[in-house]
Write a structure and sequence with these properties.
This protein has 245 residues and is α/β, with parallel strands linked by helices. It has a single domain, classed as 3-Layer(aba) Sandwich (Rossmann fold), CATH 3.40.50. It has helices at residues 41-52, 74-83, 100-114, 130-134, 156-160, 166-177, 196-204, 227-241; strands spanning 8-14, 17-25, 29-32, 56-60, 119-124, 140-146, 182-187, 208-213. It has an 8-stranded mixed β-sheet, sandwiched between helices. It is globular. The chain starts with 7 loop residues before the first strand and ends with a helix. The mean pLDDT is 90.
């Protein structure tokens, strides 16, 4: 039986892009964006945990397999394909992902359908910085950046870059100053995250809430999940999206 059994399959079309989406749960909306190589069982499991915590969860499916365990080396095959797709940026610095407007449109739709004070956004690895791009829209009030790995940290400049163009960078800083914090989770010795947490701390100050886990792991919420990281994310979503609680 598919791990997505019971999830409502649909799609969202905006800004020249269309992707499948899977929805489950009740309560304020949270958009959970999968990492490479795709919408794996571990990503779906994390989405289910967020559902069980009292949220409507939407899982966009951007690339790779959906709900099944990936084949060996599938992550290696996915990366070259993403390099030639116009909606993703893996190496350019100072540039917001082209899929940002699609994500902001999805957030507005989810908020309209689920209600509440706003929407949460959880990005992981290749999509880690997408939550920052989404919070340019004020409907996103609970952004979570999990092990952001783009741009690929091949140089010191890329390792420090958080994947936003200058205007979006200012908008994110202003939103944080206005009272919208950002939660970040990573393994402290994860090379893929580069020095982005230091960049975010310098830019956002105390508005960037860091969870630095010990070790060299990477996928904090999925294949190398850390329960402390999962709890921190769900607590943050609860505080931001269920303020009366």
């Amino acid at each position: 039986m598919s791990m997505l059994s019971g999830w409502r399959r649909g799609s969202h079309d905006a800004d020249g892009f269309e992707y499948p989406i899977y929805t489950e749960g009740e309560g304020p909306g949270v958009i959970v964006m999968h990492e490479s190589p795709g919408l794996t069982p571990e990503a779906v499991r994390f989405g289910r945990e967020v559902v069980d915590a009292g949220f409507t969860v939407v899982l966009p499916h951007f690339f790779g397999p959906a709900h099944r365990a990936p084949h060996a080396l599938e992550a290696v095959r996915v990366i070259p394909l993403l390099c030639i797709r116009r909606e993703f940026t893996l190496v350019a610095t100072g540039r917001t992902t082209p899929v940002a407007e699609w994500l902001r449109s999805l957030a507005r739709r989810v908020h309209a359908e689920a209600g509440g004070v706003g929407v949460g956004a959880v990005g992981m690895c290749l999509t880690g910085g997408f939550a920052l791009a989404m919070m340019v829209d004020p409907v996103v009030v609970a952004p979570v950046v999990a092990q952001p790995a783009v741009p690929v940290p091949l140089t010191a400049r890329r390792a420090a870059d958080i994947g936003l163009d200058p205007a979006d960078l200012v908008a994110v800083r202003d939103r944080v100053r206005g009272g919208c914090p950002v939660l970040g989770v990573r393994y402290r010795e994860d090379w893929a995250t580069g020095t982005r947490f230091e960049t975010l701390t310098g830019l956002l100050g105390h508005g960037f809430l860091r969870v630095d886990l010990e070790g060299r792991g990477h996928a904090t919420l999925t294949s190398e999940r850390n329960q402390g990281a999962v709890d921190a994310v769900i607590d943050f979503l609860t505080q931001r999206l269920h303020p009366s609680d």
